[in-house]
Every structure is written in C-alpha cells, then in structure tokens.
Amino acid sequence: MDGVSDIAWPKIKNSNTSNTLVPIQVSMMKRDGWLKEPSGVWILRFRYDWESWDANPKVLIDKGRLEKNGIPLLRTRRRMRRSLAIQLWKNLLAAGWERVHQQWE
Q1: In this structure, is residue 49 part of a structural domain?
Q2: Residue 81 bridge partners (DSSP)
Q3: pTM
Q4: Total structural domains in the chain?
Q5: In what order do the strands lie in the sheet with 43-49?
Q6: What is the pLDDT of residues 28-62, one digit of tens each?
Q7: What are the φ/ψ torsions at residue 58 (nearest 5 degrees)?
Q8: Which of 14, 39, 49, 63 could pair covalently with 58 via S-S, beta carbons 3.0-4.6 A apart?
C-alpha cells in the first residue's frame, strides 16, 4: 500500500434489460465528463471508448489526481458498458462528488 486510500468502485447491477434505443445528442458525445470526490483529491474522467462504440458501447473511466507540479498521476483505468457508467456517474453525484471542468489532457 502507498498509504493513499483507494475509492471503492461501486458494484452496480444492470436493471435495464430492455433493448430500447435512446437518441443521443451528438454535441454531448464529444465531451469528457469529470468528477471530483468530496475531499478534492481524486478525479474521475469519463470518456467514450470509440473503438467499441458501434458494436457494444463502452466508457473508459480514468482515476487520477493532479500533483503539485500540475502533472496528473493516473492510478487506474476501468472500461465498462455505457449504461453502467451512467449509473456510476449518477451514484457518485448523489454521494457528494462534484462535476468539474477538464483537469488534464
């Protein structure tokens, strides 16, 4: 251990078993989503995995923090289905995480 407590990645059950198509706004698809934990240390970056988008849409979630020199320290990367990533986003907002602007490239 490095002494830094890691966030627990919530386990989410997929309750959406329908195959309903949902229209997506193209303008929203080009943006990454950023969340910062309540303590302000860890940041999650949600971005579309374009390689999987046509067959089985996935989202990449990078967890990191900005060092004092401004360089990001990336700790983990998760890849999950879009529907589960949306649920995770909503659950984190409900738990006190905040939306923030882009933190790194």
Answers
A1: yes
A2: 58
A3: 0.70
A4: 1
A5: 72-81, 58-66, 43-49, 33-36, 98-99
A6: 445 789 999 999 999 999 999 988 888 889 999 99
A7: -125, 160
A8: 49
Whether residue 13 lies inside any domain: the answer is: no
pLDDT in tens, 53-83: 888 899 999 999 999 998 999 999 999 999 9
Instruction: Confirm if 83 and 59 have CB atoms less than 8 A apart.
Output: no
List C-alpha distances in Å: 44 to 15, 20, 55: 24, 28, 25
Task: For residue 8, give the 3-state DSSP assignment.
Answer: coil
Q: Is residue 11 part of a domain?
A: no
Using DSSP's 3-state secondary structure scheme, residue 89 falls into: helix
Tokens matching residue 30: 């080009």
* CA dist., res. 15 & res. 84, Å (int): 10
